[in-house]
Write a structure and sequence with these properties.
Blueprint lengths: L2 H10 L4 H8 L3 H9 L4 H18 L2
Length: 60
Amino acid sequence: MLNAEVKKEIKKNGFTLWQIAEQIGVSETSVIRWLRSERDCRNQQKVMNALNELKSKKGV
């Protein structure tokens, strides 16, 4: 999945990058930096895991 798609998925589900960052336990700046580059899939997976956790808490 491309980072642009990850960002779109976050927005589509009504979350912000700071909420994702808080769920992971990092700063919003870190998440922004991770999603700026397609190089590291591990960080993208952390973001997707956090999104899925938030979605399950929200009941989406």
